[in-house]
Amino acid sequence: MTKMAQPILFPGAQLDQARHACAFLNGEEEYRVLLPFAKDGVDCAGKAVHFVRRDHHDHDIRRLAAAGIGAAEAPRSGQPELRVNTEAYVRDGEFDQDRMLQAFERIASDSVNGPYPLSRIVCQMDWASQHPACIDELIEFEARVNHVCCHHGDAVICVYNLAEFSGGTVTGLMRTHLMAIVGGILRQNPFFAPPQEFFHELRRRRSLPTAG
Length: 212
Description:
The protein is an alpha/beta fold. The protein is 42% helix and 21% strand. It is built from eight helices and eleven strands. It has a seven-stranded mixed beta sheet, sandwiched between helices. It has a two-stranded antiparallel ribbon with strand order 1-2.
């Protein structure tokens, strides 16, 4: 990790060297669990970056402001930074892993060169349930994000609603995140595969002949 970062405390465990986690949350539970995470980052002079649903944008701005994250000065300070998740992740119906990895790298670079030393990034991932053709690419991308997080102190939490994804997708997501938030509790994920191992498994599966 190129930037020194203090561990981030959660109920159950903490994010330390591994700062990329998945969270299986929905509705008010998401705000209850993740608003304190974002507020603590701001209190530590960091930046709150949220990828949100378009129809949740104004609501999320209000919830963040009520938690003390951004207010009248937000347009001037750039805090918090909200991006519409569908616009960020999908272009012309396609999900481009490389483009999104570059986006995360830019956020990390902005942390190095800008006024905020670190970012805490929350990504609402419901968009993927509306683009099933992107799921395999998304799971591979999630594994690749671990490489980015190994070199930066920024924390990334990817939020999924279990009701919107198949069991196979959830299994893939569990293979790509060392830490998982389930029931509001952060836990080390026993199903996690380090990226090198995961990509070996992926190449092996793709080399198998398809039934037909």
